[in-house]
Write a structure and sequence with these properties.
This protein starts with 6 loop residues before the first helix and ends with a helix. It has 3 domains: 188 residues, Jelly Rolls; 308 residues, TIM Barrel (Alpha-Beta Barrel), CATH 3.20.20.80; 127 residues, no CATH class. Helix content is 27%, strand content 21%. It is α+β, with helices and mostly antiparallel strands. The strands form 6 sheets. Strands 4-3-2-1-8-11 form a 6-stranded antiparallel beta sheet, with no helix packed on it. A 6-stranded antiparallel beta sheet has the order 7-6-5-12-9-10, with no helix packed on it.
Length: 687
């Protein structure tokens, strides 16, 4: 899903942060903000957990450019029986039926939306807890007289619980009439303990069956022997320097001992320390011996087997790994599998294997969240040891500035002369966005807070031209004329935005200046901003001013949209994508979740990978990309969390390797082909 379209769900989460939101879209094709299209879905929300089945609403939404209209059905639902709903939409009206009876009718126009029609889909922002499950059995969809029938496969209930949806996406153009018939059943959410254990000793779903599932230690060892043979048959890519630079491109820049960027024939290029042009392709999270882990506290019943906490298997365990609760225990099944697979010295064997894989698969080096000695990587600096005034440090406070500088110095100086550091970044994604909420939190603090004084001084100087009386009146500070830093002002919305951008600019400027003072030789990528996951487009513009290359993350089917292209061209900076991915869903047969962009299987994920890398390599501004992640995530989630829920956090098949540390060859073969073609695609495009 394009992150830009993700803004509405984020706003909904913010609005309902106190409760649960549970939705399942039966069929949808709409643009909410543009007020076009339609959807039929089940909705529920509650300020208590879980959502109750008797409060389910069946809703048909119809848009006509000017407004949305809704037909809502709230019958007295019954469990364990089949229902049949029908929705009919045409240019004059919309009708909703339940079990053959008309529920409601809405007169008015219908304006179709562009884009694919989506079926049987639960957005990840709408997966709130509920005491029920909705199982769609079939959908008959007629669009302008063209009919398609869908009968959804039945999965064992314990497997279905990991991801209770079966999304489909159809490239259909809707014009005048839509007719939808759906058969569904409501059942009570089961008692997990009665169905347990869910996870076998290898970290797989016990109720899942597919070709290649690990059934014994011998399967792991056999896979290793097979891979050794495959790797021995592969030739190491020729024509590349040790930093991933291409030596056969016909041109070269001066080598400086560090990565840098140059512009040539309208194309930005990353230049390796040896002076060769490079289109950087990284793999995040290598080697990840013990990360990611799944939480165990309060839900040991889910697992058929847990490794011993002593001896060689002690490496599988962690405590408080997210820093949220030191009492929470976590376990890594992939670690246990590598111990079984490689035996004594498993870490050295796995490390050597990972290094070989990256080279033979055509990767330039590591991405974020990992590194390998002797290979380039994208280190992420942190600020955990610097106090926050709200969500971020008070960089107007001289004492905090010194603590921040010292924190960065401790992290950077040991690697400031390391040629394998492609470039520094600090923080990640939305955590580094300055928000309106934190501005209001700062303004509500005491008069001795440096950030508060700086924000008010800026507003007085830049917004009110030094007129204290107008500031006092507009911000609701009557009675505080002699002490404008006292009290809790309530500025107009436009003022909040202006002081927010002032704070953001000073914050990003301080970090960039500090990093460059400590290490003037390496590139700085910013904080991996996510297009659309911000307060406004100005966040992109301001962050772009204070970096050498704009580091961003984007999980999208398309590498570039017109909207993002406009912003990139406006700033004129090179870009590098730190995370993209298409985790496979495998038709729900293995227990992984559905990410908002996903592949049907490893082959499809590989095809999507190839298209993304090709488009990135041909883009004049892009100097590199990195795939997230090296390994699949645990089926029961990576956390944080504790208790009896089946999944905590993400549980997606992001990996190039699975829980058995086995390469996904249908994916890897396509990835390798794309990786080795990337530099040629770029050279041809920028000739």
């Amino acid at each position: 899903m394009e992150i830009k379209n993700f803004l509405l769900p984020l706003l909904l989460i913010s609005a309902f942060a106190w409760g649960e939101i549970n939705r399942l879209y039966i069929v949808s094709q709409y643009d909410w903000g543009g007020k076009t299209g339609f959807y039929i879905d089940f909705e529920n929300s509650s300020d208590a957990s879980p959502c109750q089945f008797e409060n389910i609403r069946l809703i048909l939404g119809i848009a006509d450019v000017d407004n949305w209209r809704f037909i809502v059905a709230t019958p007295k639902w019954q469990l364990d029986r089949d229902y049949k709903a029908r929705a009919i939409i045409d240019s004059q009206k919309g009708e909703l039926y339940l079990d053959g009876e008309l529920v409601g009718k809405s007169e008015g126009r219908f304006r179709p939306a562009k884009g694919d029609v989506t079926l049987y889909h639960i957005p990840h922002w709408a997966k709130g807890k509920a005491d029920y499950l909705i199982i769609l059995k079939s959908i008959r969809l007629s669009v302008d007289g063209k009919r398609k029938d869908f009968a959804f496969p039945e999965r064992p209930l314990p497997l279905f619980l990991f991801e209770p949806q079966f999304p489909q996406s159809l490239p259909l153009e809707t014009r005048e009439r839509v007719d939808i018939e759906v058969v569904f059943r409501l059942i009570a959410y089961p008692n997990l303990k009665k169905l347990s254990p869910f996870i076998d000793r290898y970290g797989q779903c016990r109720f899942a069956q597919w070709e290649g599932k690990i059934k014994s230690d011998e399967d792991l060892k056999k896979a290793w022997e097979e891979e050794k043979g495959i790797l021995a048959s592969l030739a190491e890519p020729k024509g590349y320097d040790r930093f991933g630079g291409y030596e056969l491109g016909g041109w070269k820049e001066k080598g400086t001992g560090f990565f840098r960027v140059v512009k040539r024939n309208g194309f930005w290029w990353l230049i390796t320390p040896e002076g060769n042009p490079c289109f950087y392709i990284g793999l995040c999270g290598v080697p990840s011996f013990t990360w990611e882990m799944t939480p165990v506290t309060g839900r040991g019943f889910l697992f058929e087997w847990l490794p011993p906490k002593e001896g060689i298997y002690s490496s599988c365990w962690g405590r408080g790994v997210w820093g949220t609760n030191s009492a929470e225990e976590y376990v890594a099944f992939h670690t246990a599998n590598m111990i079984r697979k490689y035996g004594e010295g498993w870490q050295e064997i796995a490390l050597d294997l990972t290094r070989k894989r990256l080279k033979l698969w055509g990767f330039s080096g590591a991405g974020k969240w990992g590194e390998m000695a002797g290979m380039p990587f994208l280190p992420v600096l942190r600020r955990w040891d610097v106090p926050n005034i709200a969500r971020h440090p008070d960089i107007f406070n001289p004492d905090i500035q010194e603590k921040f500088k010292e924190s960065l110095r401790r992290q950077i100086e040991p690697r400031k002369n390391d040629p394998f550091v492609v470039g520094w970044s600090l923080g990640n994604e939305y955590e580094e966005i300055i928000t309106r909420e934190e501005i209001m939190e700062i303004l509500g603090k005491g008069a001795d807070v440096h950030a508060k004084r700086a924000l008010i001084d800026y507003a007085l100087r830049e917004i009110y031209n030094g007129d204290r009386d107008v500031l006092v009146k507009t911000w609701g500070l009557e009675g505080k004329k002699g002490a404008i830093y006292e009290g809790k002002p309530i500025p107009p919305s436009e003022d909040i935005e202006r002081v927010r951008l002032f704070y953001a600019e000073e914050y990003y400027k301080f970090i960039y200046k500090t990093v460059k003072e400590i290490d003037p030789n390496h590139l700085y990528f910013g904080f991996w901003i996510v297009p659309g996951w911000w307060e406004s487009e100005d966040d992109w513009r301001i962050s772009a001013k204070y970096c050498d290359v704009i580091g961003y993350d984007l999980y999208s089917l398309e590498f570039m949209s017109d909207w993002l292209k406009r912003l990139i061209e406006e700033t004129g900076k090179p870009i590098i994508c730190g995370e993209f991915s298409y985790p496979a869903f495998y038709d729900g047969e293995r227990g992984f979740g559905v990410y908002h962009v996903w592949g049907r299987d490893d082959t499809h994920s590989g095809e999507l990978y190839r298209r993304w890398v090709r488009d990135a390599a041909r883009n004049p501004s892009c100097v590199g990309v990195a795939w997230f992640f090296y390994r699949d995530q645990p089926l029961t989630g990576r956390g944080p969390g504790s208790g009896e829920d089946l999944v905590y956090g993400e549980h997606y098949a992001f990996g190039m390797v699975d829980v058995g540390d086995r390469a996904k060859w249908d994916l890897v073969r396509r990835v390798k082909e794309a990786n080795l073609s990337a530099i040629k695609w770029r050279l041809e495009a920028g000739h």
